[in-house]
Amino acid sequence: MAHDDALSYLEKLDSRSRGTAVLDALAEMVERAGLSVGDRLPPEVSLASTLGVGRSTIREALNRWEGLGLINRRRGDGTYLAARVQSAHGVAPTMVRLEGEALLRLLEVRRTLEQEVVRRAAINANPQQRKRIAALCVALLNEVDAGRSWTEADAAFHGAIYEASGNPMFAQILRSLGQAQERSSGSPFGSDEFALASFPLHRLLADAVVAGDADGASEAVNRMLDAVEEDIRRLIA
């Protein structure tokens, strides 16, 4: 389908919203126009004119989509779909579902990398590193049990495991993956209640690394990521 034809599936918005209205309208346009991966979106100026919003509003929405890995921008050529986009038809809002699907794609990459990282950590960690990993796990679970924000404690725990792997590139890649996906304001994937079921499994991971059990560490991290995936799928169902 020609990208200009997709504009016929857009209508002017009632308000000059900079929030979900534009994102929802774009998702509905993509779905109704039958655009698929590799298809080019209409130009920003055409989208802005058809929706009756400023070009900066469209650019902001497309920046959000780019951060979710939904589009590729080719300088001087246009904006192309890089992943499936559908509007929401159930309880979950469109952006929650799109964020969740992007997280699932990210989780596939993390699963492959983290299995290797924890195996190497179980094999290569020195006694001081094993002791630190155990202590940081206790600190993390204390924060979770107390209902406090666990973000920093979680980063410290996983950072110690990345360091113990013996390859600093793992830490750089995995941290960049964690920062790659910006959560929208109020996103359920950024709350302290997200993926709570995975935290008891951190103890299994810590114990396996401390014991030098590479297979046990790999199994533990797989179970942790399974719990995260289940929570994502629940939220976007």
TrEMBL record:
Pfam families (alphabetical): FCD, GntR
Entry's Gene Ontology molecular function annotations: DNA binding; DNA-binding transcription factor activity
Entry keyword Transcription: yes
Annotated keywords: DNA-binding, Transcription, Transcription regulation
Domain HTH gntR-type: 16-84
Protein name, entry field: HTH gntR-type domain-containing protein
Coiled coil: none
Keyword Lyase (UniProt): no
PROSITE patterns named among the record's database cross-references: HTH_GNTR
InterPro entries, per database record: GntR_C, TF_FadR/GntR_C, Tscrpt_reg_HTH_GntR, WH-like_DNA-bd_sf, WH_DNA-bd_sf
